[in-house]
Amino acid sequence: MTLELFSVTQEHPLQFEHGLWAQGYERVAGIDEAGRGPLAGPVVAAAVVLPTEADLPGLTDSKKLAPRVREQLYERIRQQAVAVGVGLSSAEEIDEINILQATLQAMSRAVARLKPAPGYLLIDGITTLPGSVPQRTLKKGDSRSLSISAASVIAKVVRDRLMVHYDRCYPGYGFAGHKGYGSAAHRQAIAELGPSPIHRKTFRGVREYLPAVFG
């Protein structure tokens, strides 16, 4: 579906949502993910339906926010949202179906957990989701749509908390600090300890340290 009202020079944080609300779509869900690039841990997606009166000053792409600010906004989004859904795909699923398909799977799982169900989806990126719900993809949507920004914060905070948990389960890798991304310290830990159960075994930087049978 192409909506000409989206083509403007200056974009309001709720511009896309306002256009859809005006067309009768009461529940517009923003969808985003966190964790496509790390060497370890799941990819986490979130879907968020905001109310028309959402009051979330400072909300933008989670990557542009300090951790403390993300945590504060996470609580405010949870308080104000009409619905929030979170889905993830594990490292094992990423290895089995590839990171793109695993990301789309996590997004679909997040949408499926929205209660009430959404009437329209605004998705960060360029790839649509399977299903009959009307949808639109937005490049850099996490900086252009407040609903997608909210989803990016939810996904990032949930994933970061998971990685802190995994740091306790698998000490020595430093997951609480780098959150599974390929920092120098993380790569050194993999070289010394070998991959953990939550490492993505098909990713460069991990697969080189697997036994030959897995190589």
Output the keywords:
215 residues; alpha/beta; Nucleotidyltransferase, domain 5; 7 helices; 5 strands; elongated
Describe this entry's structure for a reader.
- With 215 residues, this protein is of the alpha/beta class.
- It has one domain: Ribonuclease H-like superfamily/Ribonuclease H (Nucleotidyltransferase, domain 5, 2-Layer Sandwich).
- Helix content is 38%, strand content 14%.
- The chain has seven helices and five strands, in the order αββαβααββααα.
- Strands 3-2-1-4-5 form a five-stranded mixed sheet.
- α3 packs across α4.
- The longest helix is centred in the last third of the chain and has 24 residues.
- The protein is elongated.
- The termini are far apart.
Number of separate strands: 5
CATH homologous superfamily - what is it? Ribonuclease H-like superfamily/Ribonuclease H
Over the alpha carbons, how many angstroms does the gyration radius reach?
18 Å
CATH class descriptor name: Alpha Beta
User: Quick one: biggest sheet?
Assistant: 5 strands, mixed
The low-confidence parts are 1-9
Structural domains: how many: 1
Helix content: 25-40%
Name the helix and strand elements from N-terminus to C-terminus, one letter apiece.
HEEHEHHEEHHH
Terminal CA distance reads 44 Å
**Strands of the largest sheet, in order across it?**
3-2-1-4-5
Backbone structural class: alpha/beta
The count of helical stretches stands at: 7
CATH architecture: 2-Layer Sandwich
Question: Overall 3D geometry?
Answer: elongated
Mean pLDDT across residues: 93
